């Protein structure tokens, strides 16, 4: 497996355990996370605590949305990993997401330094993330 894919897996493992020491081994202290659009999650998150807070909110939303994920494409280079997925939710309130989404991960000196979400339908994503919270 690719070293950067290993870092992503270690990130999610450490995040799930709330293991801050292990998180600091794979992400930079000044990590920068970007979520597009005009909704409650939009904007730049800088630093470990802001990124963790973002993932907590995202996890809560997606965890309560009966989410189905189909992995479409995985691209890997020396400094980047791009993961593209088809995301479909089935919420009982009919506030749903049905689109392709990608995360572009950036690495430097053995750590994740940036993540950026890219969406295929920003208007739908804005509606979903504004109202699904």
TrEMBL record:
<protein>
    <recommendedName>
        <fullName>SnoaL-like domain-containing protein</fullName>
    </recommendedName>
</protein>
<dbReference type="InterPro" id="IPR037401">
    <property type="entry name" value="SnoaL-like"/>
</dbReference>
<feature type="domain" description="SnoaL-like">
    <location>
        <begin position="9"/>
        <end position="114"/>
    </location>
</feature>
<dbReference type="InterPro" id="IPR032710">
    <property type="entry name" value="NTF2-like_dom_sf"/>
</dbReference>
<dbReference type="Pfam" id="PF12680">
    <property type="entry name" value="SnoaL_2"/>
</dbReference>
